[in-house]
Amino acid sequence: MKSSRFLLRGFRRPREIACLALGNLERQVLEQIWQQGEASVRDIYRQFDERVAYTTLMTTLDRLFKKKLLHRRKDGRAFLYAASVSQADFDQGIKEDVIDGLLGHGADAVEPVLACIVDTVSERDRELLDELDRLIKEKRRELKQRDQ
User: What does the alpha-carbon distance between residue 148 and residue 136 come to, in Å, rounded to a whole number?
Assistant: First the structure.
């Protein structure tokens, strides 16, 4: 059974959440920093082929710094910016926030969400259902060992 693709009010995909939380330009600048490792405003300005104002990029980098997604160090009269979090950790954090938002509404709300996940996984690929079962068993063993 193919489900329709619609967006419930308040529910977004993880990438959409990141863009809303950061803004499109902030996300693009952050991706440039992840690619380069460390960059100045001028470096980012060149990467955008000078299509975005230098001062706009300077403000964007400063906002990312204030949001603690970048750290910076002084290099002469300029700042060099580097990511405070890896792209993988950033994406994982977004996914965890989405799951926490779904499951964080009390015990009564959890069962329908989990049932929906199982239904969706099994409709798409039955092998994924086996993988989900394996992961659950592995997590149970891990928790038992921790409790002993």
Answer: 19
